[in-house]
Structures are given as C-alpha cells and as structure tokens.
Design a protein that fits this description.
The structure is a homodimer of 473-residue chains.
Chain A: H1 14-33, E1 36-41, E2 49-51, E3 58-60, E4 67-77, E5 80-90, E6 96-104, E7 107-116, E8 124-127, E9 130-132, H2 134-137, E10 159-167, E11 173-174, E12 177-184, E13 195-199, H3 200-206, H4 215-222, H5 234-239, H6 243-251, H7 269-282, E14 284-290, E15 298-300, E16 305-307, E17 314-323, E18 330-338, E19 342-351, E20 354-363, E21 371-374, E22 377-379, H8 392-396, E23 403-410, E24 420-427, E25 440-444, H9 445-451, H10 460-470
Parallel strand pairs in A: 5-11, 6-12, 19-24
Antiparallel strand pairs in A: 1-17, 2-3, 3-4, 4-5, 4-14, 6-7, 6-9, 7-8, 7-13, 10-12, 15-16, 17-18, 19-20, 19-22, 20-21, 20-25, 23-24
C-alpha cells in the first residue's frame, strides 16, 4: 500500500506499527485526561441565551456566536414544488478550519487535535489543528487564546497548500461557510499534549474508524491536493490488487495535467459546468429567514423545539458542558439534534477503466447558491417530501461485496447533538446505466478535485466522501 | 492584426471592409426601422406597478419582474466601518444572456442583435442573440416568443462553448446573477432583420465605439475562451508592434496549458486563491433587505426616490416606453438612474515580459458572496464613504500615452437609465511598485480567464474590461 501513498517516502512495516502504537497511546491518554460531562437542560437553564420576545429567535445576549432562527422555503424545481418552514442555525461569520502540516523524513504529517465537542457521541474526536469561529479567536467569550493560530494568520505563516471557503450542512445552517486551510510550517512547531503528528497514510487508515475523524478534519482533508503530480503514477495503477482499485487510481489522473491519460472522462469539464449551470437555473428555490415564532408547524416546549406535523428531521435542545481542556471550562448552548442517522453514498463505476462517481445536483435551503454537488444518495433528502429518492434502493440494498467503504462518522459536534452519518462508497454493477436522470452526472475523482479548489461546488457530505475515497488506495 | 485573431482564417483587407460596410448598412437600417420613444413619468402613471402599502417596496402587480426594495448594509472590513441604507433592485430569477455562434469560412461569427432598451442613452445597442429574463421567455407579460431560444435550451441545441452564472452590479442589484452562454449552432440559423452575423475580429473593433456593444454582450464575450489553444501563439508575440502588446499577448499564455511559458506569473494560482479567501474572510459586511419605507435617509416624491443626505449615487425614476420591435409595444417601468458617469480602470504592467493586471478584492453589498474581483479603480466605490480611493490619481491623472483603451460604454439599459461607465486600460510606469496594498493583487490575463470559468470571481465591470482588453490585439 505504501507505494501508493503520495508524499510517502518511508517504508511500511515497523515504522507504521510504531506510529500506530504511538497514536493509540496518545489517544488513550487524551481520553483519560479530558474529563467532561454534557447534560441536557431546559432552555430556561441556558446562561446568556435568550428567546427574543419579538421574533422568538434564540440567541446569545452578546449578539454573537449563532442564533436559531426561522426559515421559509418555497422549493420549485425539477423534483416538483413544496413549501415548508423550519428552524435553522444562523452564524454569520467565517471560521477557520486549519490543519498544520510538516515534513518528517520527507513524509507530510498533520498536527491533529484531540478535541471535545458538546454534541459528540463519544466526546473526543480527531480534529484539525485549529477549529475556531471568529468569536473564538477574537476572544469574545473571554476564554484562552487559540493555539497555533499564528501559523495560519499573519506574516509568520508557512506555505499555504489549500485555502478555500467551503459550505456546511445546507439543511441546518444558513449561508455558513468556513475557511478550509492547510499550511506547511517551515519552523519548529511545539507539540502540545492535546495534539499529535499523524501521517497522511495513517490519517487515511483512521478514516475507517467509526466516529473518529471529525467533520471539520474530513472537509479540510478532502481539499488537500494528493500529490505534487496530482495523483498516483502508472506504477501504482499496475500494482493495484483489483480492477476497482486500478480504476480508482486512474480516476485521479484523467486530467491532462499529470500526463497519464488512460481514457477520457465521460464528460468534458465544459460539459460538467454547463450541466451544473442548467441545474442551478432550473432549481427555483426561494428562501428567506423569518422570525422563529412565525414557524407555525414547529412548537417550543420547555426543553425542545420540535416539528408538530412530523415533517421535521431534527429538534433543537439545550445542553450544559463541563470540560477541562476547552477555552472556557463550562458553558451552556443550544444544539440541533437529528432524529435519525443520516446516510451519504456515492455509487461508482468504471468507464473505460476509469472510475466515475455518480454526482447529484442537490438544492439545500441554507446553501448560499442553493445548489451544490452532493453524493448520489443523501438522507434525509432536502425537499424530497414524500417523493421517492432516486437510487435509494441501489444504495440500501447493495450487495455487501460491492460496498467498498462503509463507516459511520459524526457531523460537527459544536452545533449538532449525536449527528451521525453512514458514509458509503458502493461499486455499481458494470451494467449500471451511464444514461442517468437529469439531476445526476458522472464525474471522475480528478474532475471533482479540480472543482474543490473553488467554493460553491461540493457540499460537505460529498467532501467527506471524497476524503473517505482517498483512504481506499 | 488579423494573424493575431484566434479562430480567424480569412485575410484582412477587402473582406474586412466588406463586412464593415455590411454592418454599417444593417445598423443604420435598424436605427431607421425601430421607432420608439422613452419619457419620464411620475410613479402614479406606472401601469401595474405599485408601492406596497406596508413595506413601501415598488413592485409589479403580477408579483414578477423585479422590485425596488430597501437594503441595510453594515460594512466592516479592511477599509474601515460604515453603515448605510439604500434602495436596491431585487430580481430573484436567473435570466439568459446567450450568444449564438457559427463558423463561416472557418471563422467564428456571432449572431448579434440590434436591441432597444428603455434606459439606453442612444436607444439601440449591439446585444446578445438572446437577453431574456425568465419572465420574458415564459411569457409572463404576454408578449411574443423569445427568438432563437430553441438554440440554447432543449435537445436541439448546439455545442456549448461557455455556460456559467455571473453576477451583475453589486451596488444596484440584490443577489442577481445571469446565465452567460455561448452555443455553436450546428444546423441552419435564420437571420431575422434585427440580427446580424459579426465576426469575433469585427466585434472586438466595435468594442472601441462609445455606447455600442451593450453590457450583456460584453459579459458573455469576456467568458469566451479565445482560441482552442488558449491564447495567441509565439508567432503573434514576435509580430507584436510594441512591448506592451507583446506583454499582453504573453499574458494569455502564461499557464502551462498552452505550452508557451515566457515567464511565470507573479503569483501561483494557489497564492491568488488564498489571497482572495483572506480578503473575503476579512470583509465582514452584513447586508439584509429591509422595507423601502424604512430607509430613512432616502425620500420619495411624485417622480423620484432620492437620497436626502447626499450619500446616494443614484435615484429611482419611472419611465414609459413606446417601441415597435419589442416583445410588447408599450410599457412602463421603474429605472435606476445614476447621478454621474462611472469609471472602471485596470492598471497594467509587464512583469518579466508578461502583462499583469492590478485586481482589487471589492466588497459590494448586493453580491451573493459579498466580495468579487474588481478593476483597480471603480467609481463610485462601494463602501468608500469619504475615504480616499487607492490609485485614483494614477488613473485620473494618467499620461494619455499610457491609456491603451478608453471608451465610454453603457450598463444594462433594461434596468438603468443613461448609466455610462468610462472603461480604461492604463499602462503603469515600469517603476510602478509590485508590492501593493493588501486589497490588491497582480494577475495575468490567463489567470483571470481561468477564474472566469466559474461564477463568484470577477465582477461585471472587471468582465467588461477583460472583453475590452481582448480588443487590443
């Protein structure tokens, strides 16, 4: 496997084992050291959080952090028309999700953090080096400074490898986007006890562990160019164990840029962009923030905001956190709690020996530009109402032999309570049609990676799955 | 010149003259044939347009077309903080700006339209083949069908060369973006009398005529890839008359993609994207639509909405149009009338023999993602208040010998009344500093063209200037 890992120069075996043991020891130590508890509380017990008497919106008395507001959606598109209200999280500031990188013995390593978030089902998850809203790092809540911030901002920062604004959950956040940044440090980097250097190779393996690599780490990793050459070489393709892996590896290199051109993508980039423009044009969703008190199909009790007609897929609750290693040691906050585990799956098949992913143009009410590229199947499906979700049975009923990746991972624990998604990459049968419904399009990994250099293209679930896909070689 | 025109295979001279005469005859004929008059009217005389009694917003009784609403802006960024209210045009539908292309004798030609718009200072301007809001082509206003629409939509359309959503004036429109599309027709195209085939070569020359090529045509043209190879060849560079033109031609080819690499760009694409991300992150502008009646610093009389404190740069008026060749023969509508002529200028200088343009990251309140790339100087400057505008004197006081392009062109006459902008490309002195303030960045033409494949990057004034720049070779 190691020959296929870009940037990797060390040999697999003893070093791998040693680094795995070192990681496990560090991780176990962090779990022991970080005592905390999270308990559900009624809204009245939230400190400094209040329902605005006029709008009914739930916000912090400082006017910062985030608010829970109402959203009205009139969705009119290819899938049909629907109208609904829902609560949504409004956080009008750009945060930083930053991973610090450094080369050891020629191999790129990432400084990952053991970080507690109140909504995490297992409290600690492997997180970016920094994961901070502007309120965090400008110290609105009077906590400590944000560690390692100086490597990402200001004149002393290192070489930028990735720096792009990307969206987050479009059904739960209003116009949220965060800065996804990877910086290669040039000087010495102190290793605080909550932080650990992990190689790219190791990080990919860790992605296969349930609820370990957090959402913020996954989205930053997905944006990371995989190798200076843009993908694995011919040697790696020849060494692949099976046709699926060979097709996957070729899928990273179908752009002329890296010189190996085993078969053209099914669609040119001009065609993909035109299809995406058409999908945006057809999807006429009108969205607007409204007072939460005006959201008639939802009701507020002492300890939750919940849908009264069964249409809601989440509820809003309050929580109190006590922890030793956060910027402040105790706080309360609202959380959005999904009612069910989500699902995000890409169907994939080889075309002329090159793996293509079946991408969906998915409108989501909170996305700034409404439509982004999503996995083939994403559940719950925004705006689907009672209509059937295309390719659902192909995913849920897939032959286990064809399921190439299958891991339950968590969404942002700073805002969501126990939000888990089952991420899957499923090999479609070779007779699976290339001619697909108009909202869908086959793309190579290389094509998706090129789009990922820019914002407004891949939604957060598609980005997570792309990070998972990288772990398959 | 002709050897430098991409796609061109014919020889300059007699053919050029013949096509110029043919264009002039057609244009004069259209001016004679199209009788119309535009008169200013009080708001009470607008048919089917009403001020909403509650919000004070001005809208059409059908609920479609567009509304004039209020906007609140809290601008907090590198340039300082400011807060203001203003009216803004809200048109929540994606229109099509489409140019139909076809090859004659190997040379690409565009089917351009002689089109009247109520706000045009000279009534007819050279426009895209189709220029239609969704209301137009779904026939909300019960007019005729949109000519040539079938070449852009549906199964019979030709080969798509360009298809991208691009923004429009961020100080005047709320979240407006239109589909910029160029389609190469494969079959026969009837030439209606208001339409004329114009070669790319000819079209570039016409861009140097004041108020002839309209805004919509300019933005579509700017997105057009210039040649299959991506730029002019080495031969064209060697044949250039002067160092400025040679540097300009090289600026199209500094990306590895076309194989000629005379000198690297000053910044890599990764660096440009990171700078732009940083600029977006720093610019914390909060904008929200508010009722027009709540905009206290503006007042409404019988026939205009105007700013009371002198801060406004435009007013809202009413107009009645009578015309023979529009979809409907008479109508009334509001228009936004700027108080002064605008200005948009790029400062340009060669770096290692390659022309670089000085691009500004400019927040504008109506842009969907707030910040886009703008000309070096754009007046009036959104959010500048009384502060000095960087590089203003370098533009207004430029040595005439260094002004390489200088033409007054009109903005969208369907919404703006007599809105003119002086577009300039100015060669900066060779000792002009490469080290520029943080809101500015030097980019090659090729780098800008790559970004133009995607939305949310270049604002409409920068796109217009890029189209003008193409006319310089």
């Amino acid at each position: 496997m190691n020959t296929m890992a870009p940037f990797a120069t060390s040999v697999a075996g003893r070093d791998d084992l040693a680094s795995t043991v070192a990681f496990d020891v560090w991780w176990a130590g962090r779990q022991k050291a970080n005592r905390f508890e999270v308990e559900r509380i009624p809204f009245a017990a939230l400190d400094d959080w209040r329902f605005d008497p006029e709008s009914g919106n739930l916000g912090h008395t400082s006017g910062r952090f985030f608010t829970i507001e109402g959203l009205h959606v009139a969705a009119d598109g290819a899938q049909g028309a629907a109208t609904w209200h829902q609560p949504i999280i409004h956080q009008p500031e750009i945060g930083i999700l930053g991973i610090l990188a450094q080369r050891f013995d020629g191999e790129l390593h990432f400084l990952m953090q053991a970080k507690m978030e109140p909504g995490n089902i297992n409290t600690l998850q492997l997180s970016p080096t920094i994961q901070a809203t502007r309120s965090n790092y400008t110290r609105v809540h009077r906590g400590g400074t944000t560690r390692y911030l100086e490597f990402f901002r200001g004149p002393g920062r290192g070489r930028v490898l990735v720096d792009v604004l990307q969206s987050e959950q479009g059904s739960w956040f209003w116009h949220k986007h965060n800065r996804n940044i990877v910086v290669e440090a040039t000087g010495d980097v102190p290793e605080h006890e909550d932080f650990h250097w992990v190689s790219l190779h190791q990080l990919r393996r860790l992605l296969r562990t349930d609820n370990l690599v957090n959402m913020d780490a996954r989205t930053v990793l997905s944006c990371m160019p995989l190798a200076p050459s843009g993908g694995p070489g011919e040697g790696a393709v020849r060494a692949a164990d099976d046709p699926f892996t060979a097709a996957l590896l070729r899928s990273y290199g179908t752009c002329p840029r890296n010189g190996t051109d085993p078969g053209p993508p099914l669609h040119t980039t001009t065609e993909l962009l035109s299809w995406f423009t058409e999908m945006k044009t057809r999807s006429e969703w009108r969205t607007r923030l409204v007072p939460l008190s005006g959201v008639g199909t939802w009701t507020r009790t002492d300890d939750e905001i919940t849908s009264t007609d069964g249409s809601g897929t989440f509820r809003i609750i309050g929580a109190r956190v006590k922890a030793a290693n956060r910027e402040v040691t105790s706080w309360t906050q609202p959380l959005l709690a999904p009612l069910e585990q989500g699902r995000a799956a890409f169907l994939a098949r080889a075309v002329d020996g090159v793996l293509h992913l079946l991408v969906k143009a998915q409108p989501e009410p909170g996305l700034l530009d409404t439509v982004e590229l999503a996995p083939t199947v994403q559940l719950p499906a925004a705006g689907a109402g009672g209509r059937p979700v295309p390719f659902r049975t192909e995913v849920t009923g897939a032959d286990p032999d064809r399921v190439r990746f299958d891991t339950v991972l968590s969404e942002e624990g700073g805002r969501f309570h126990h939000a888990q998604t089952r991420y899957q990459i499923i090999e479609a049968p070779q007779d699976f049609p290339l001619d697909v419904p108009e909202g869908f399009c086959w793309m190579t990994v290389r094509q998706l990676m090129e789009l990922l250099r820019h914002g407004h293209y891949l939604n957060v679930e598609a980005r997570s799955l792309l990070a998972c896909l990288h772990s398959l070689w």
